[in-house]
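Input sequence (296 aa), recorded before submission:
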Amino acid sequence: PIIVTPRSYQYARLIPGKNVLLRSRAAAEAFLARQQANLTSFVAQEVVEGPDETLWVCNCCFDSNSRLVTAFTFQRIRTSPPHFGVTSFGVGRNNPAIKATCAALGKALRYRGPAMIEFKYHAGRGEYCYIETNPRLGMCNTLDTHSGVNNVYAAYRVARGEDVAETPEQQRDGVYFLNVHSDLYSRVEDGEPLGRIVASYWACRHSPMAWAVYDRGDMAPFAGSLRNAALSILRGIGRRLGRLVGLRPGERARCRGCDRTHRRTRGTAVRRRRARPAARARQHLHAASPAHGGTA
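Predicted structure, C-alpha cell format:
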C-alpha cells in the first residue's frame, strides 16, 4: 500500500482528507489520472503495516551547531483519524535508539530549532522506519513538559542565540496524553468495541495525565472543546437523519412559502409531513418578506 499526502498545507484542498490511502494498482492509477496536473504537489510513501502502538514520535530541539540538546520520545496508542492521523492517545517512553537516529539526522541536515520526528517500528525488519520530520514544535508538547522535557523553552533559548545544555536522556516515563473527544470519536468510527476503549482509559486511571485541552487553572479551552464536540455530534445526527429521509446535504428543495428553490444547509434536511400552525405562520411571514417580493 501507498499513502499520499500534500507537500504542504497550500495543497491540502486537492484531496478530501488529510491523506489518501492507495491499496491497489488500480487505485494508484486512478489517483494518477485524477491528479495528473498536480502530481508535484504530493509526496507518496510506502505504508508500514502494523498497529498504532508501533508509531513513535520524538519531539526535540537542535542548537545552532545542530546538536540534539533536548529530546522526548513517546509511543502512540491511537491516532485521529484512525491509523494515519495525529496523536489522540499516547504515553511517554524513553527510546534511546530513536534519539540516536534523530541526533544523526539533525547533524546530517544541519538542522537548527525544534522538530517533531516520526517513526514506525517494522516488525519484519526489526527496525524503526523513518516517516517524516515536521519542522516545528510537536502538537503534544504539553506531554513533553509534564514529563520533564521543556522543548518550548529550549526552542526559545536557541532562537535567542543562547547556549543550551545537552539533556537528551532527561525524561520521566509513564505520563499519558489524551484528547478524549478526538480519541473516542475516532475509535468508535473505526469500529473498535466501546468496552475495549473504556478499558484502555481505565487502565491508566492512576497514571499522571497530560490532557489535550483540560487544565484546572484555565478551563476556557476545555469549555470550547465541549462546545465543538456537541456541535460535531449534532451535525453528525443531522446528516444521518437527512440520509434516513432521503435528502442529501446541499440538496435543493422547493420552498412552500415562495414556491422557489433554496439550497438546504448541512444537517437540517429533514422533511415534515404536516406543518404545524406555528410553522405555517412562519411560512406566511417568509412569503411576505422583501427578499421574496412581498412587504414586511
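Checked by second reader. The longest helix spans residues 220-244.
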